[in-house]
């Protein structure tokens, strides 16, 4: 999954959070927003961008974070 793809989709839905690559070649992130927007983002991420190959999407519920204003790519 492409981090830029995820950031653009999250921003278009008004979802805040972050995404980054992990040392083992995976992509991880956190997203928060209204339920329908987060579900749209998860659906997009599960499909991935056109040339990506998404093997598995894992998700879990976490506490929301106050003060987030955008969706960032972390390095």
From TrEMBL:
InterPro entries the record matches: Acylphosphatase, Acylphosphatase-like_dom, Acylphosphatase-like_dom_sf, Acylphosphatase_CS
Domain annotation Acylphosphatase-like: ranges: 1-75
Protein keywords: Hydrolase
Catalysed transformations (reactions): an acyl phosphate + H2O = a carboxylate + phosphate + H(+)
Keyword field contains Hydrolase: yes
Active site: 3, 21
Domain of life: Eukaryota
One Pfam assignment: Acylphosphatase
Enzyme nomenclature, EC number: 3.6.1.7
Family matches, as PROSITE patterns: ACYLPHOSPHATASE_2, ACYLPHOSPHATASE_3
Root EC class: hydrolase
GO molecular function, one term: acylphosphatase activity
Signal recorded as keyword: no
Homology family: Belongs to the acylphosphatase family.
Protein name as catalogued: acylphosphatase
Organism name: Elaphomyces granulatus
């Amino acid at each position: 999954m492409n981090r830029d793809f995820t950031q653009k989709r999250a921003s278009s839905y008004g979802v805040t959070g972050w995404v980054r690559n992990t040392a083992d070649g995976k992509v991880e992130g956190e997203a928060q927003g209204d339920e329908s927007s987060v579900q749209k983002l998860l659906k997009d991420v599960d499909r991935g961008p056109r040339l990506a190959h998404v093997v598995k999407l894992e998700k879990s519920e976490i506490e929301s974070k106050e003060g987030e204003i955008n969706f960032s790519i972390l390095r």
